[in-house]
Amino acid sequence: MAARRIAFINEKGGTCKTTLAVNVAAFFADKKRKRVLLVDLDTQGHAAKSLGVDPRSISKNVFHLLTDPNVSLEAVTLPTATPNLALVPSWKDMAEFPSLAGADPQRARRLATRLEPALERYDFIIFDAPPSLGLTTTNILVAAEEVVVPVATTYLALDGCAEMVDTVADVKATYQHERLRITQVVPTLYRKTQLADEVLAKLKEYFPKRTAEPFALSVTVDEAQSHGKTIWEYAPWSRGATMLQSIAEAVDRAGK
Ligand SMILES: Nc1ncnc2c1ncn2[C@@H]1O[C@H](COP(=O)(O)OP(=O)(O)OP(=O)(O)O)[C@@H](O)[C@H]1O
Ligand SMILES: [Mg+2]
């Protein structure tokens, strides 16, 4: 069976895209024994950093895969400390991708095309998206089939979520990508306040069967990332790990 392709996307910054992409990928790889490829497309290189890899020290990354036909998928794929989890890192070069690829009529399909060899080699391909819309995000949506939208439970967060619904519908129509769908909306950075509960209630109203359990604020999750470790390496028995496991399981079920 071809790999399931799951994108963590929200054009808003700081909504836990990277935290969820990295830890869900690590959960599938380490706990479910699946072959997982995590593909970062953000210029910040946070997926690599979250896995203890310094993206500056790597000569070839996803940018080279997307812009140089002589660079193979293997040449940009790194092993990680988590068993079964491989990483395609990203770095500042990716900022040049939209202008470099702009004139190519197939520009939106480059990522999907370059990942074709991965479809049989992996069970899951997980994408960590940048906090913006544009050619990079379009490439992710063309390459993915399942979209997970992490939404901060704060004022204005719902706007970004509505934008994502429109963007997914646009890509689906423009690229005849029938299988593309939002499978889960994950309320993140949750604290029990009246405002957060109002945002949560709205999400459940808009996405009745697709809203995951809230991902509450947890210092341990933040610490794990700052140490370059997944939650399962850093604090496997923490509340953060329990929350991330239940989100990973919801993402798994929702896309089946
Ligand atoms: N449950 C949590 N509790 C506390 N802090 C968290 C939690 N989840 C993530 N964070 C922290 O919030 C910050 C933003 O998270 P993250 O990098 O995952 O967001 P992002 O959506 O990928 O951001 P960007 O849009 O910049 O790519 C990070 O410092 C991360 O460690
Ligand atoms: Mg990020």
Main attributes of the structure:
256 residues, alpha/beta, Rossmann fold, 12 helices, 8 strands, binds adenosine-5'-triphosphate, binds magnesium ion
What's the quick description here?
With 256 residues, the chain is α/β, with parallel strands linked by helices.
Describe the protein:
This protein is of the alpha/beta class. It has a single domain (4-254), classed as Rossmann fold (3-Layer(aba) Sandwich), CATH 3.40.50. Helices cover 42% and strands 16% of the residues. The protein has helices at 17-31, 46-50, 62-67, 97-101, 110-114, 118-121, 135-143, 157-174, 194-206, 219-226, 231-234, 239-254, and strands spanning 4-8, 36-40, 78-79, 85-88, 124-128, 146-152, 181-190, 215-216. It has an 8-stranded mixed β-sheet, with helices on both faces. The longest helix is centred in the middle third of the chain and has 18 residues, at 157-174. The radius of gyration is 17 Å and the shape is globular. The two termini are 13 Å apart. The mean pLDDT is 96.
